[in-house]
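User: Assemble these into one structure.

Assistant: Restating your components, then the assembled model:
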Amino acid sequence: MRLLFGSLLSFILAAAIGLGATWFALTQGTAFGAITLGAWTAWPKTGTQDIDPYARAVIARNGELPVGLGDGVAFFARNDDRGRPLDGRCETIISGITPQARYWTLTLYDPDGQLVANSVDRQGFTSQELIRRSDGSFEIIAASRARPGNWLPTGGIERYVLVLRLYDTPVGVATRAGREAPMPSVAQRGCS
Amino acid sequence: MIRWLLWLLGGVLLGGIVHLATVLFLPQTATQDAYSRLLAITKVNAMVPLPSPSPQAALMPFMDPAFVTAVCRYDLSQGSLKLTAPVTPAYTSVSFYTRQGIAYYAINDRAAGRRVIELELMTSEQRAQLPEEEDVTAADRLIVESPTLTGLIVLRAMTPEASVMPTVRSVLGQAKCQLQPVAS
């Protein structure tokens, strides 16, 4: 009887721990091979054959095709510079310069990776269509209501993800310091 | 008491094994991975343009809306493939994915260095069977080796501004991926 209860306890515990850890790893993301610069995190190895088993499971589950490393690198921001989750009801300023790249795009998604509907049908900016200051730096304002300049509508959703993709860039697996790759700052303010 | 602690320890260890097994086994059981999603709208060994992602409908999560995409779902069991893709004004890239969605090779227009990107895709066995002198004379031939028999070639072209979308779409429409029957 004791044997039965003991093994039952073990199996229930094993299932809870094992499946729980898998669920957590696949939804929260792992730190394997991650490059974090300010608010931005990229997993360049996910775009190569050296992809880790966790990232393999994540792309198999969500159906994503990761950007190949010979093509570019994708940086994700779910929080601002101070670690607060990006909220579509607040105003977020993305400003500064980007690392060296032939082209880049900045896109706003919901946490599941779907584009967000809005009245002006804008989901992001490319490096070519942006209004810049004379020194080449830029400022994008993500907010639910219209703003002058580079306005990125959030649609007022509660949580969103910003993805900065650099195409044809030296940034990759070997990049470590922010000096090599200056990323734009992400500052959230004025929540309504 | 000790006995119960041992059962607990056993459960924790078994939990670790369950975790690793599920992570490693999950890609084989996935029914909603990129390849499965593209199965219905693509043809074998033919280039098919994909609809642009929109808030209402997107084939895959985290697609870049600034890009026009075309996909060739390949099967190398009948021979190797030849890919020809004209270069669009801004930026064009070709990425190769295995059946499991792993990007094993990617090249952009500048690295390819021509007006038209020409690539041959074959398995390592097919490459080994190439006549030797042919391999030498065509030194500038770009040959990509696929680790799997099936997979995806994804052609992506950038639209720096929304107004050039039709132009980029028509240029990308000329891209081809053709089966080259085994010469014997």
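The helical segments of chain B are 2-29, 34-39, 109-112, 124-128, 132-137, 165-172.
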